From TrEMBL:
Pfam families: Asp23. It comes from Tissierella creatinophila DSM 6911. This is Alkaline shock protein 23. The lineage of its organism: Bacteria, Bacillati, Bacillota, Tissierellia, Tissierellales. Belongs to the asp23 family. InterPro entries: Asp23 (IPR005531).
């Protein structure tokens, strides 16, 4: 677990925030955006998985250098949403949440759309067939 020192003041000691904490904040912020169905496991094996609250850091990569955070996140969107707008909203919400909660600068949030969730449409089709 990588930790990053957030303050340089030694009056009371240092504050360290784990990359997992940043990833959790980013994961929650992404799932708050309307149109996001879930997060993807990422690039490994092409396998995507809808994730619940227990796996908030899955599909999120965080790199921190000199109090600047670069965040990559893989998500799945709902069928029918404007994908570009949803991606921009995810970027903005992650940036705002991480900067507000950690005092880090977040100049870069890369959103990778890994899939489209069509579950609602499939359920409606099942109801019609039966």
């Amino acid at each position: 677990m990588t930790e990053n020192i957030i303050n340089d003041e030694k009056e009371f000691g240092s504050i360290k925030i784990s990359n997992d904490v940043i990833a959790t904040i980013a994961g929650i912020a992404a799932t708050e955006v309307k149109g996001v169905a879930g997060k993807s496991m990422g690039f490994t094996g092409g396998i995507t998985e809808m994730l619940g609250m227990k796996n908030l850091t899955k599909g999120v990569k965080v790199e921190i250098t000199n109090r600047v955070a670069k965040i990559d996140i893989s998500i799945i969107v709902e069928y029918g949403v404007d994908i570009a707008t949803t991606g921009k909203n995810v970027q903005e919400n992650i940036k705002k949440s991480v900067e507000t909660m950690t005092d880090l600068l977040v100049p870069e949030v890369n959103v990778n759309i890994q899939g489209v969730n069509m579950e609602k449409e499939e359920k409606e089709d099942e109801l019609v067939v039966q």
